[in-house]
Specification:
With 209 residues, this protein is α/β, with parallel strands linked by helices. It is 31% helix and 18% strand. The chain folds into 2 domains: 87 residues, DNA primase, catalytic core, N-terminal domain (DNA primase DNAg catalytic core, N-terminal domain, Alpha-Beta Complex), CATH 3.90.980.10; 103 residues, Dna Topoisomerase Vi A Subunit, Chain: A, domain 2. A hairpin with an 8-residue loop joins β3 and β4.
Length: 209
């Protein structure tokens, strides 16, 4: 398992802070995803601007920066999401290790936690008061992650409505004992349901009433 030095963490912390200063450039995009400015601040989201290209970030210009923040507030990774139709949808710096996203949700005073595919789905659920963590794809799941969910009475796996989502559900349910797999409608994910139908429909699909 990769261990970051203090200087590496400081570098990532500084980068996340610098990008967050430009988060206003993403407000229109975030609004289309139903995410509030408060959520953007809580997760320290940001935008990479052209002025950051000199720092070696030219590949990420115009993208939403999504820092991975530990319970002790260290930034241990940053993912960069396109806010238009450009591909690939997500980028990470070479050598970046996969982590769970929104790990502070594991400390919530709750008997339930939802595991989602991706950061934006996790943000969406936390915004409406449902503790959730995100996994950036099935290949990012690590065997030891299951230990983090042992203290929850209920663990739900919210699977996107596609083949990748079904594979994600199978993998995680094999690893997390007693987890309940929730298959979302074809072509849908947590965020798209929230945007199109609201939080009541989303809670119903997740069997949370």
């Amino acid at each position: 398992m990769q261990t970051l030095s203090r200087s590496q963490k400081d570098f990532l912390q500084e980068a996340a802070s610098t990008y967050h200063d430009h988060i206003h450039l993403a407000y229109d995009y975030l609004a289309t995803r139903g995410l509030s400015e408060e959520t953007a601040d809580m997760y320290r989201l940001g935008v990479v601007t052209q002025t950051h290209a000199a720092l070696g970030d030219e590949d990420y210009v115009g993208r939403l920066s999504i820092p991975y923040i530990t319970a002790s507030s260290d930034v241990v990774a940053i993912r960069y999401r396109s806010m238009d139709s450009s591909e690939p949808k997500y980028l990470s710096a070479p050598g970046t290790e996969a982590h769970l996203y929104s790990v502070t949700s594991l400390l919530a005073d709750s008997d339930v936690c939802v595991i989602t595919e991706g950061e934006i789905d996790a943000m969406t659920l936390n915004q409406i008061g449902i503790p959730a963590v995100g996994v950036p794809g099935a290949k990012a799941w690590k065997p030891h992650f299951h230990l983090l969910f042992e203290d929850f009475d209920r663990v739900l796996i919210a699977c996107d409505g596609d083949q990748a989502g079904r594979e994600f559900g199978r993998l995680v349910s094999d690893q997390v004992h007693g987890a309940i797999t929730v298959h979302l409608p074809d072509g849908q994910d947590v965020n798209s349901i929230y945007v199109s139908e609201g939080d009541t429909s989303l809670r119903t699909l997740l069997r949370m009433g």
